Amino acid sequence: MKQSVKKLFISIKTSAGEREKMIKMAIENECNTLVFSLDDDFFITKNRNKKYIKLIKHYTLFIEAGGRDLPLFMPRSLFLFNKELFRMEQGKRKRAPHFCPTNPRTTAIIKEHAAFLITRAMQEITNPIVFHLYPEEGRENTWCQCPACRAFRPAEQYLIAVNSAADVLAKLAPDAKLIYIDFDTEPDAEGINPRANMMTSG
């Protein structure tokens, strides 16, 4: 009988002490998978002596990475000198949220950061290897309105970005999966298709 998967997303702002309590609560509720942000200290720190990490190992919990991490793939620090990489609204470039996914330089930068973040996280992720990559919460439909991007619906622009990361993941870990949110209001319309290594969060 296949084991059901119950996931707990750990906020990057959650302290080590709070994480310890959350993990104990997760165990009590038969949660078997923890998901950490790609920029979480869990994937960065070399100090593995924290109690919550010992709990994870003790209960052999599965580890996945990602969440609302799309901004990590296009650092907003680039905005000052590279405004053309970011979202256009009413003729003006906006630093946030999201970016201009049809710009070839944007997808190149996404792939560069995806390679770094995925490689770093894979040192801690357990099999099966699963990543999550979601748009900014509450801003799912706020995407670029530049002449090139206007040809694509917000859900398609999001897919262009996620597909770029999925291409990198396929090379680094062919059996890995990237989970995305399908918020397309026109699912039957012709448009951008997800990569073969992608699956919806539902």
Please explain how this structure is put together.
By secondary structure, this protein is an alpha/beta fold. The chain has a domain at 70-120 and 137-174 and 184-197. It has five helices and eight strands; from the N terminus they run βαβααβββαβαββ. It has helices spanning 16-28, 41-44, 51-58, 104-121, 154-172; strands at 7-10, 33-36, 62-67, 87-89, 92-94, 130-133, 177-180, 198-200. A six-stranded parallel beta sheet has the order 1-2-3-6-7-8, with helices on one face. β6, α5 and β7 form a beta-alpha-beta unit. The longest helix has 19 residues, at 154-172. The two termini are 21 Å apart.
Short overview:
By secondary structure, the protein is of the alpha/beta class. 31% of the residues lie in helices and 15% in strands.
Mean pLDDT reading: 93
Largest sheet: 6 strands, parallel
What's the helical proportion of residues? Answer: 25-40%
Strand tally is 8
The end-to-end span amounts to 21 Å
| SSE string | EHEHHEEEHEHEE
Strand content: 15-25%
Q: Measured on Cα atoms, how large is the radius of gyration?
A: 18 Å
Q: Which runs of at least 5 residues are low in confidence (pLDDT < 50)?
A: none
Shape: globular
The chain-level structural class is: alpha/beta
How do the strands of the widest beta sheet line up side by side?
1-2-3-6-7-8
Number of helices: 5
